[in-house]
């Protein structure tokens, strides 16, 4: 992958900046290029006085599959360096979403996995279409949703966390709404667009100062302990990735085999 590839598309219309993840060949994974372009788009939207809200959406069947560790390894990073780099990129993106003094609205109509949850959880409003699915499969790989838990624990209900963090099972948009992860889920693309447009029209009626002050209230508790929580979870993530169990889990996953601890009967 070359640095000049455009993996994030940006368009501004009617006071809304639409940021589209456009790397379907690797399921919109968070490569260094995509991360850099996404952060630049978010920062640019924040600096544009004509932008009232930011919509983050995607092309392809996956909203975001999480970190692109393979790309980091191809750039000569060691597995440890790749893991550390991915964690730093994820925490920086989450902070960028949360700190932006304008509403960030995620519109996902595809699969959300791993670090994709970090983007959804960091958004102020999260909408899902009929093709959206969600799964936190880290536990099946000998890992945990460590860094993204910083935002997920602030949004999801305790019961939902207790189920989906531990089981790794997939869930729907409707279940995501009940879990507290999503604002709304729709049964059709037309309805998804209608809900998005209704929310954006309401945001357009708000003043920039009012939006910034209101968002600051909504995110204050999360930002207050953000750096400490992220540092703790990043250290935890590194330790897990360095374990023999995680290596066995990742090896089995890449080989499309069953990991040694799988005791399922189906």
CATH topology-level fold name:
2-enoyl-CoA Hydratase, Chain A, domain 1
Number of strands: 10
Sheet with most strands:
6 strands, mixed
- Unreliable sequence segments: none
- How much β-strand is present in the residues? 15-25%
User: What structural class results from the helix and strand content?
Assistant: alpha/beta
SS summary, helix count: 11
Give the averaged pLDDT, no decimals. Answer: 94
The percentage helix is 40-55%
What spatial form do the alpha-carbon principal axes imply? Answer: globular
CATH class: Alpha Beta
Radius of gyration: 18 Å
Major sheet: arrangement of strands: 1-2-3-5-7-10
Order of helices and strands: EEHEEHHEEHEEHHEHEHHHH
Query: What's the CATH architecture?
Result: Alpha-Beta Complex
- The CATH superfamily title: 2-enoyl-CoA Hydratase, Chain A, domain 1
Our measurement of the CA-to-CA distance between the termini, rounded to an integer number of angstroms, reads: 39 Å
Query: How many domains comprise the coordinates?
Result: 1
Describe the structure.
The protein has 266 residues and is α/β, with parallel strands linked by helices. The protein has a single domain (1-187, 206-266), classed as 2-enoyl-CoA Hydratase, Chain A, domain 1 (Alpha-Beta Complex). It is built from eleven helices and ten strands. Strands 1-2-3-5-7-10 form a six-stranded mixed β-sheet, sandwiched between helices. It has a four-stranded mixed β-sheet with strand order 4-6-8-9. The longest helix has 21 residues, at 79-99. 39% of the residues are buried. The mean pLDDT is 94.
């Amino acid at each position: 992958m070359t640095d000049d590839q455009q993996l994030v598309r940006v368009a501004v219309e009617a006071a809304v900046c639409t940021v589209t993840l456009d790397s379907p060949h690797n399921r919109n994974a968070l490569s260094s290029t995509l991360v850099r372009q996404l952060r630049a788009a978010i920062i640019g939207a924040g600096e544009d006085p004509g932008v009232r809200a930011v919509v983050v959406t995607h092309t392809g069947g996956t909203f975001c599959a999480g970190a692109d560790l393979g790309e980091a390894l191809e750039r000569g990073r060691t597995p440890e360096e790749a893991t550390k780099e991915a964690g730093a990129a994820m925490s920086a993106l989450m902070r960028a979403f949360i700190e932006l003094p304008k509403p960030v609205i995620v519109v996902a109509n595809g699969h959300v996995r791993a670090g994709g949850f970090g983007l959804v959880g960091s958004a102020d409003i999260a909408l899902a279409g009929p093709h959206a699915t969600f799964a936190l499969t880290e536990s099946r790989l000998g890992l945990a949703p460590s860094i993204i838990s910083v935002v997920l624990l602030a949004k999801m209900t305790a019961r939902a966390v207790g189920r989906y963090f531990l089981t790794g099972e997939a869930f729907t948009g409707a279940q995501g709404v009940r879990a507290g992860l999503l604002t709304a889920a729709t049964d059709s693309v037309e309805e998804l667009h209608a809900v998005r447009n209704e929310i954006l029209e309401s945001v357009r009626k708000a003043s920039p100062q009012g939006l910034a002050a209101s968002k600051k209230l909504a995110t204050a508790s999360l930002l207050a302990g953000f750096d400490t929580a992220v540092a703790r979870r990043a250290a935890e993530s590194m330790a897990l990735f360095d374990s023999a169990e995680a290596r066995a889990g990742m090896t089995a996953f890449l080989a499309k085999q069953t990991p040694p601890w799988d005791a399922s009967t189906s």
